[in-house]
Amino acid sequence: MPYPPANTSIACPFCRQPITIQVHQIVDVSEQPELKQLLLAGRLNSFTCPHCHNTGALATPFFYHDPDQELALLFIPMNISVKEADQQKMIGRLTQQVMANLAPEKRKGYLLQPQQFFNLKTMVETILQADGVTPEMLAKEEARLNFLQELVDTTDDARLDDLIKLHDADFDLTLFQLLTSALAAAATDRQRAEFDRVQHIRDRALALTTVGQKIKQQQIVIEAFTANPTRENLLDQLVAAEEAEVREALLTMGRPMLDYPFFQALTAKIDAAKKDSQAEEEARLTALRKEILTTRDKIDAQTQAVMESKVALLRELLALPEADLDKTVKARLGEFDDLFFEVLTQNLQQAQQSDPQAFAQLQKIGDAAMRAIQGTQPPEVRFVNTLLQIDYPNQTKELLERNKQVLGPEFIAWMEGLVGELREGGRTETADRLVQVIDQAKEIAGLKVSLK
Ligand SMILES: [Zn+2]
């Protein structure tokens, strides 16, 4: 049984108004794995003040229990002034509660001496170490984040360029990925200034660093291919690309085009070089053909392995009792990607005619996955998703009217930004629908309707 959170009233640390917060005093990983993710992300017992809209996390005692790792940890924040006797009482009460919830054979000794932490960071490190994350890995990660912060804090553009050049060796693929995630986070949180700053840092790093130059080259080649995705163009780009990584990226994107006509065209190029007695070019193209074949097989093997893992995941979910479905989905949220939904859709199509029971079960899995994914999205993203799913114009009008207070100019502008993103992603129909919804929202909010 999951432990229900307790309601606690506090004064908002920002505006001092009284607010009520849901506080988790027990984090049991076997019951509510999503709480572990919140804890690791620094968002356990977090709140958004309904008055001033500031966000914070309440430092409050809690018991962390992971039966698989036999971890029983207790967090007691430094700033809390509780008498030693009361503290012991609280430890006793939480331990009892966890014990009472366990089957007798699972009530083990480690639960009686929970390790105490006064510092949340040390506690998180202990949890990560049990997961196999070493202190060296953590230190490297922290250094990376500190460096990123240093970059963001450097407001002088000339100094920023110097800093980037000085740290050329630190700009590896992971750091560029981190910059990309920081961009995505700023976009989701609608932090315009932060978004612009990180984008500027990324642009400069792409221009000034060794790895950045490589990424940029790769982007140029990939864009040249996606602008004109034909077999001939794929072959031309492959022949022109100097870096093996770029060729691999091209082959990954152009995999469906690696068919008989493609290889015929390549062979024709080799033959032409031979005929013109260009021995060097002939050897280069022959080596390229070999490389393409090897890379193609590698890509296929990777795709196959990923597909198999998704099929295995689906099989595992089908074998679960229904009551455990949501919990398991939440614990493995990261595995529910486009490929998983592709596998799910295929199975749904197969089951539709032949096996109504399996069909119903697969639908439940799909629903649970969608629920879990939407649960992690910010409220405004969920709101827009709902608007796009219900019927236009009547249901959308009704929902917009009920949420009239959030339809400020800023929110409308953010939705308009989404339209662009949807169009870039090729989702024209959804973009068109969102434009209609935005017009409706403007009308309801009393803002001027845009002229199209
Ligand atoms: Zn407040």
Description of the molecule:
There is one protein chain. The protein has 19 helices and eight strands. With 452 residues, it is of the alpha/beta class. It has five domains: 6-131, no CATH class; 136-208; 229-293, no CATH class; 320-375, no CATH class; 379-445. The strands form three sheets. The protein has a four-stranded mixed beta sheet, sandwiched between helices. Strand 7 (71-75), helix 2 and strand 8 (115-117) form a beta-alpha-beta unit. It is globular, with a radius of gyration of 28 Å. The site of zinc ion (ZN) has 8 residues, from loops.
Strand order of the largest sheet: 3-6-7-8
Fraction in helix: 55-70%
The protein's oligomeric status is: single chain
SS summary, helix count: 19
Strand content is 5-15%
Principal-axes geometry comes out as globular
**Cofactors and ligands:** zinc ion
Give the integer mean of the pLDDT values. Answer: 87
Low-confidence parts, pLDDT < 50 over ≥5 residues? none
Largest sheet: 4 strands, mixed
End-to-end Cα distance, whole Å, is 54 Å
Main structural class: alpha/beta
* N-to-C SSE string, H for helix and E for strand: EEEHEEEEHEHHHHHHHHHHHHHHHHH
